[in-house]
Write a structure and sequence with these properties.
The complex is a heterotrimer of chains A (about 325), B (about 325) and C (about 280). Chain A has about 325 residues and is of the alpha/beta class. Chain A has helices spanning about 50-60, 90-100, 120-130, 135-150, 165-175, 195-210, 225-230, 245-250, 255-265, 305, and strands spanning about 5-20, 20-35, 40-45, 65-75, 85, 100-105, 185, 215-220, 230-235, 240-245, 315, 320. In chain A, strand 1 and strand 2 form a beta hairpin. Helix content of chain B is about 75%, strand content about 0%. Chain B has helices spanning about 1-30, 35-45, 55-65, 75-85, 100-135, 140-155, 160-170, 190-230, 230-240, 245-280, 285-295, 300-330, 330-335. Chain B is globular. Chain C is mostly helical and about 280 residues long. Chain C has 13 helices and no strands. In chain C, helix 7 (about 150-165) packs antiparallel against helix 9. Chain C is elongated, with a radius of gyration of 22 Å. Classes of the chains: A alpha/beta (about 325), B mainly alpha (about 325), C mainly alpha (about 280). Chains in contact: A-B, A-C, B-C. At the B-C interface, helix 1, helix 7, helix 10, helix 11 and helix 12 of B face helix 4, helix 5, helix 9 and helix 12 of C.
Amino acid sequence: MDKTILRTEQLKAFYVLDVLGTQKVVKAVNGVDLEIRENEIYGIAGESGCGKTTLLKALFAAIEPPLRLIGGKVYYSLFIEETDVSSLSAEEKRRLRWEYVSYVPQGSMSVLNPVIKVKETYRDFIESHVSGRTKEEAFEIARRQIAELGLPQKILDAYPHQLSGGMRQRVTIALAALLKPRIIICDEPTTALDVVVQRGVVQLLRDIQGYLENTIILVTHDMGVHANIADRIGIMYAGKMVEEATTEVIFGNPVHPYTQYLINSLPRFGDKTTRESVPGSPPSLINLPSGCPFHPRCPYVLDICTEQMPSFVDLDTHHRVACWLVGEG
Amino acid sequence: MAFIKRYLIPRIIQYFLVIFLGITAVFFIPRFTPSDPVERTITQLRSQGSYLDPASMDDFIADLTELYGLEGSMLQQYGAFWQRLFRGDFGVSFFQFPTPVIELIGTSLPWTLGLLLTTTFFSWTLGNIIGGVAGYFSRKGWSRALDTVAMIVRPLPYYIFAFALLLLLAYVVRWFPVSGGTSIGRKVVLNWPFIKDVLWHSFLPALSLTSLGGAVNFQTMKLIVQNVNAEDFVQYAKFGGVTEGRIVSRYVIRNAMLPQITNLALSLGQIFSGALITEIVFSYPGVGTLLYNAIVTGDYNLIMGITALSIVAITTAILVIDLLYPLFDPRVRYM
Amino acid sequence: MRTLRDLFRDYRFALSFCVLCMLLALAFLTTFSPYDPTLWGVVPRDLKPSWTYFLGTSSKGQDVFWQATFAVRNSLIVSVIAGTVSRVFAVLVGMIAGYKGGGTDRVLMFISDTLLVMPLFLIIVLLAMLVRDKMNLVTLGLLLAFFGWAWDARVIRSQILSLREREFTQTAVLSGTGTLRLVLNEYMPFATPLVFSTLINNMSWEIGMEITLAILGLVNMDIPTLGTMLQWAISYQAVLLGYWWWLSTPVILSVLLFVALYWLSVSISEYLDPRTRIQRVGAE
């Protein structure tokens, strides 16, 4: 079995906001246990506002006020033993960024410095991690990588505003793979792009993973993308993981009611029945419902669901669910 | 090419239009007010006790009219006005008759330029650097303390601040001279004692201008940097583990500079006026003091000359800055 | 009101509010003044501050304290007049330019920009020289108002531009609301706080201009204002003769006024700006 490359234990990260005297707490990540392995593409799916981006920030060890780490731990497998991320110094964390784990943010349209050319951004990233290279050598590294990934050379000499949105997205993905990190985290890489460009982006990700044989953690609400490249999928709801399995199982045999709704709402060839989406609206992360956060919208709600939060039950080697329907029932 | 068409040409047209409008305004204002300059001069002379011989009054009025360029129809005056302008002829000064206005401005201008250029340079660069660092470390105590200081200095008008400095540092403690550009009787020679003397005299006006300008630059830069810090690309650079020094210089300050260049262009008019006012407080031998004398003696030609030249100078300076801006912002260079 | 309470949490608002109240109180005291402010020689000259003459007396034979009350009052009157009239200009120009857009917008903004980059000081000086005789508080206010609207017209225009893109504008237009009603009823609530904070800033500029013009002798020197008071002191050589009470009163009062007005406008605009509100978030 493949080794674990990243692990979380009851991870809790909340936003603490102080608006004119009153304190509001947004429970974006509310007790998440994850085990991500080497050489896999792990997808995280869920509606907007379920805490996906916050989870990614926590995995990337980029927690800054107003976001606070309330509890739990994140472990990187840097050496034989796991390393607790909170034990690392600021400089160690800085080095790990891009060398161990890199990040493709949501909305990559505006993440490149507008006043310098793309190759200069490459140079900044390279020179901040690799010492002893001249400017020309750094540019050469950039050129080689761009060529390897099949992207046109001229983007390096362009300014970000001269490139299309899709091209900018591909640049950020290429940048993420630059120092050959063990983990690449992608936040909604295909949103706001047209389908043709989406395909290119997905292909690029697959190529990179195949070439580096590393792990890609992919967050998107687009189940089609997950179906396309994810090996395993974790379903997130209101700050918690509710189901996790391989892609085939999630699509073929969803167990959690929320997952079932997600899968059933997807169009299928030949099936002309009306698609049903999840009734109601996502809960406010400031005022979470008691017990299982899905219970107000769940068609199979039991009494215990309103009182206690269910914990994970292993259905299979690679399938676990957090639901009172499975488990004690 | 799009750059030339969309940025350069409109800008240059605007330049000429503004100068044209401004100078036309200068032309028309004295001619459309309740009392015209000739009348006022006579009233003023009378109130100062001069004796005006009634017999030669007509000739006197005719002379004054000619002096102020008020003869002929409005159109004729306007035409003559522009003609003289292109020759650099602003008429003859009244209070220092018969010196041409352009000559008086010429002797005062170097003083003003020296003061203005150095103080603007220092207040802009120092204000931006300190403001930039303060904006980056906006939560630290020293940053907030500096902000409070700037909040007290900034709203003060040029006159009050300069005057307060004068009182404190030239009267209460006699560290600096009370007035002038050089000590009385000193000849203009380019040697060290002369330069030292000039510096000593310029210190207070320079301090006044730099403090006020610096306070504004500090505050605006601090705000800009605080905003730039929150921009996606700065966040991204931090995600990428780019070293802090690099982030501050290439990501934060390089981007924060851009609006500051524009702000400098916009505030040049105010900075210039402030310099003139400050000169008046310290009787500094620049255009400001010249203006003061012109006002007191009712020398319209001189005032109009100063105003017209100032309009041209400031508009040109702003144009230069606007034309330099694309060098710093590639988004304008390659549209 | 809740807004006031929230505003008071900002030390700048609290301090400036108190200082301004104090200055307004001074201005109101003018109704009780035992002396006519325009008369000279009503008290013995050049006396140091004492219990009889709070802030001493001037070389013109006037009580400095009571002169100061009138000075504050008159300076405030000028700035209120100038501020309000220039608000009207600014709002009109800003709204028309912002809402109409296109050619009207460009022309209006061109005029506004031209005014902005000019050395207004010189033009105001030129004008003031020529209307010197007819100058009183009102005319001075109007003169300054004529030049003080340009910057704020742009500010209001930006606000209108962003409002125009919002959904409720299109709803209103589709349901047949006339332009005037749309602008007055729908946009004003957004623009009013903006207008208020720019008013305060503008008033500050106007008082500064008034003082500068007074020093140059371009206003009616018989009316006591902060500027004329200072100018009389200077022309009577108060500096050399050491009459610090006569000199420092207008200086200190105006410094207080400027700083207070500025802090007030900054705290109000920061309160209104949603971005800075969220920035004060639970960090440390």
